[in-house]
Amino acid sequence: MKTDNRKQVLISDLHTWSTVGIWPEGFISKAGSHVGQNKYQGLLWEIWNHMWDWAFEIIGGDPYDLIINGDIVEGDHHRSKQVMTGDRDDQMIAAEMIIRPRLCYDPSLFIVQGTECHTHDDELWIGQELGAHKDPSTGHHAFRRLELELPTGKLLAVSHHMPTTKRIWTEANALNAELQNEVAEKVRNGVRPPDMIARAHRHIHGYYSNGRQAACCTGAWQGLTRFGDKVVPHAIPAPSMIILDSSHKEEGELPTIHEKVVSAPH
Is the pLDDT of residue 12 over 90? Predict the structure, then answer.
């Protein structure tokens, strides 16, 4: 797909429905119960709103693409008890309440599917409700993988998964390895390789560039669950947002990267 918009906003891993994920104010469940934010979610909500204030200062009045790269909802996984209500439909309602107010400037919306055990097919229905672009290969309102050609001709490839690591000193290695592996796979199969990739899933923000190619990963809007504490016990969540900005860029140039990372309370 091609876009004429010179700015792309990237977020991921909202994990709505988790007791340590982002949750909207004033939520009423399907059963009619008020399900309020806990203290942690209240702090996440403040970070969420401040980050969007920052984003709109950069976006200004320009048209833009909003790309939500997977795991919008928490889902029912690993028999977790850390969920806000007993009804899975409530998570999709909550996700809409979180995202819809951020569509007030009529962005072009792309949703990329996340981890199956979290999302099942919920992101397809959320995308449909919010009017997201359809994936031409499936006809659904969420992409398995999004390839977006920017106005400068650079190709951005967005997918959710990438390897995780406990080792802070190998985070940049993982980004470059993901980028170069995808480029090599495409080249040897005679397919156009991306110039830039966007990933999520590992819940850790990162950006790498060699000047001609780039890779980025957005942080998660979720604190450390009991399951996460088993896998990465020392991790401190850091929600983030990335804005790709091709304003004033010439043909063949990479976009400018605006990044905002906030250490969540822990």
Answer: yes
Question: What is the 8-class DSSP label of residue 21?
Answer: B
- With 60 as the cut, is the pLDDT of residue 191 above it? yes
Q: How many angstroms separate the CA atoms of 91 and 249, rounded?
A: 40
- Collect all residues with Cβ–Cβ distance below 8 Å to 233 and sequence separation of at least 6: none
What's the pTM?
0.93
Looking at residue 65, its pLDDT comes to 97
* Domains (range + CATH), the chain: 8-261 (3.60.21.10)
What distances in angstroms separate CA 155 from CA 1, 103, 147, 209, 254, one per listed residue? 9, 24, 7, 14, 9
Strand pairing category for 146-149 and 155-158? antiparallel
The pLDDT value given to residue 113: 93
Count the Cβ atoms, other than its own, within 10 Å of residue 181.
11
User: Using CA atoms in the order 186, 192, 194, 195, what is the torsion angle rounded to 10 degrees?
Assistant: 120
Q: How far apart are CA 150 and CA 185, in angstroms?
A: 22
The count of other CB atoms within 10 Å of the CB of residue 105 is 13
Q: What angle do CA 17, 241, 219 make, to 5 degrees?
A: 60
| Among 66, 70, 10, 57, CA closest to 196 | 10
Type and span of the H or E element at 90: helix 88-99
